[in-house]
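Researcher: For the annotation table, I need structure tokens for Diguanylate cyclase DosC. Please keep the output clean. Sequence:
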Amino acid sequence: MEMYFKRMKDEWTGLVEQADPLIRAKAAEIAVAHAHYLSIEFYRIVRIDPHAEEFLSNEQVERQLKSAMERWIINVLSAQVDDVERLIQIQHTVAEVHARIGIPVEIVEMGFRVLKKILYPVIFSSDYSAAEKLQVYHFSINSIDIAMEVMTRAFTFSDSSASKEDENYRIFSLLGKRRRRKRTANSLNTFMGNRYYL
């Protein structure tokens, strides 16, 4: 897992380094100007899905998730080279939270698809030139895709670890119950044997 995160750090760093600084600045500008709208639209669309709605209460979305989504959009689309390692850690942390509360990975993937879909008209309605719009869109989508891949891989790893912990706990509980039953049976046999020989 550590090697994977190192590889993704190199890839994300390469994306930022190779992008024209003007294009990165425009992507950051889009993020700051439209993150609030994007987060509102994101949760409006995602919550239409009945499966997703199970995990997203209205209060939770309003109190925590919209503002967290705004920060995430700004962080990812404004990334500088020095930010990459911290951003990878953020994706890992978010994935662990998703796994802990049991959000299925397909809902996470759907969320990324929704975000890319609603980002498109925001970028193309800007007053940038046609070439700039295309470059900003490509940089933004590639940034989101890398973040998504890191989060999904970390999610799968965290979900697998959580499942193993649950399984270990169940096995431990079963073994404990079996030992208790055996001790009870031995005690009962001893008790009955003593009674028999009295």
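Researcher: And a one-line annotation?
Model: Confidence is low (pLDDT under 50) at residues 161-169, 187-198.
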